[in-house]
Amino acid sequence: MDLNTRGIVNYLLLPIAGVFYLLSSLRRRLYRIGLIATHHFDVPVIVVGNITVGGSGKTPIVIALVNYFKQQGKQVGVVSRGYGGAHQQGSLLVSQDIQASKSGDEPLLIATQTQVPVIINKDRSQAVKDLITNHHVDLIISDDGLQHYAMGRSVEIAVVDGQRRFGNGFFLPAGPLRESESRLKSVDFVINNGALYAGEIPSGLVPKAFINVVTNEQKPLDFFANQTCHAIAGIGHPQRFFDSLVELGVNAQNHAFADHHLFTQKDLEFEGNYPIIMTAKDCVKCKDFATQQMWYLQVDADLSDDFLTKLTNKL
Fold first, then answer.
1. pTM > 0.90
2. Residue 299 CB: number of other CB atoms within 10 A?
3. What is the per-residue pLDDT across 145-183, written as a single tens digit (0 to 9) for each?
4. Other CB atoms closer than 10 Å to residue 102's CB: what's the count?
5. How far apart are CA 18 and CA 77, in angstroms?
6. Where are the domains of the chain?
7. Which residues pair with 45 in a beta bridge?
8. I want to staple 17 with a disulfide (CB 3.0 to 4.6 A). Which of 48, 99, 171, 275 is the partner?
9. Does residue 89 contact residue 184 with C-beta atoms inside 8 Å?
């Protein structure tokens, strides 16, 4: 669909978007006045979410926060809806050897890179209760869930994509908005992923190393400089990953897939026997058929000491 056709379709969907806006606003108001119950907990809950659909860079920030609070001596747990996974009923503890097709890619990535208990459940409140009861955590971070008002929270962090921001400014399904931009005024922190914007906390993804999917061997960031490689990305904004490889000097042949795409071996059969470089999020979905030809780019979310201090004080 070309841009002109997409724009026309979006305008035709505006009446439905208006209904979505009214229903979402009413739902939030019912929670605020107490007509729908919110579950509160004895341990603090930090929600890292956004007001749009599509990737905004939440998961690397969740991982960075988990690792930070672990260093502070906290027993941290994570809850997630498990988007894209087949698990439907009840709570599931995500182990590092679980299939991404069952848990979803993001919970598996978090569990793999943090080694903390990660529980997925469509009922996030129940996931929080299970973490507290079974894993004795003293801090919980929710990957997404800003709109899951049944789950009480101590701190709200909204992540904004610094490049795409709020798209056309329309609500679903005519645009990307799940809530209005004014919602950002009520959260505790707004993190801007990839740009500088007044009143928002700047952050970005910092490349660290290339890591072999099979052997876990690490190579420096200039290892693939001037080499032809296949680059694959099944994330919300693939071009950001491709651009990062260009900045590292990689001669990348780009292959973009839908966000949360469940890769098969056939997806990675390309012409030319070149190295294959992927994101860490894609890596966890390829381990069953990985070869030593496959690498992922390890990145860390850059969070300032000032922000982390303010967040700690908020708790």
1. yes
2. 19
3. 999 999 999 999 999 998 889 989 898 899 899 999 999
4. 15
5. 37
6. 3-203, 206-301
7. 140
8. 171
9. no
